[in-house]
Amino acid sequence: MDATNHSGRVLRGLLVTAALLGFAGATPALAEGSWASYISSWGPGSESRRWADSDRDDVATSVTFQGCQTGNNDFKDADLQLYKDVFGPDKVYGHRSNHCDTSSWGDQSAGDYYFMLEGVRSGSRLWVDTVTTRY
């Protein structure tokens, strides 16, 4: 085997390996951020913590409830609103009815956000074992 042919095959092998490693190392876009907590005895007007979305991705802002109860243990749904914290009255980004599942508001622009409990059907207080917010 001559040295030129061998060097060409080695170079092609290195290029193919580098390309394959590049594909293997590529990762899908992940949520910019998330946080998890719980809710204990919330009534209408209770607010979540605030979070900063830098809008570096295309991930929808969502709130997931797991393990929902009301004072009479007959949970049906919770009315949530997403707000953007701005100077003056905060901007409302829409109402969602959460049935102890995931509520989504789509991809939001950069800013500080929070959600508020507007009401609970079949009860006046809300308890949620796990609240996960992704943005």
UniProtKB/TrEMBL annotation:
<protein>
    <recommendedName>
        <fullName>Peptidase inhibitor family I36</fullName>
    </recommendedName>
</protein>
<feature type="signal peptide">
    <location>
        <begin position="1"/>
        <end position="31"/>
    </location>
</feature>
<keyword id="KW-0732">Signal</keyword>
